[in-house]
Amino acid sequence: LAARLSQTYPNKRIAVVVKTNWVKSAQKIFQAYSVKNIDVFTAYKLIKSGEQYDYVLVDEAHRLRRYYSKGNHVTQDIFNKDENQNELKLLGKLNPCFILFYDPAQTIRPSDIPKKDYNTFLTDNEFKELKLTKEYRVNINELNKTYTSDDFMTGIQEFLQIDASNAKFDHNIFQSYLTNPDAYFGVVNSIHELFDYLDDCENYEPATQNRVMAGYTREWASHQKKNRDRNDVYDWVEGNYHWKWNSDSENWLMKKNSRIEIGSIHAVQGIDLNYAGVIISTDISIDNTGKIIGIPENYKDRNGQYKSDDYSKEGFSNFIKNIYYVLLTRGIDGVRVYFEDKKMQQYFYDFMGINKEIQ
Question: 8, 43, 162, 247: which is deepest, by most CB within 10 A?
Answer without folding.
Answer: 43
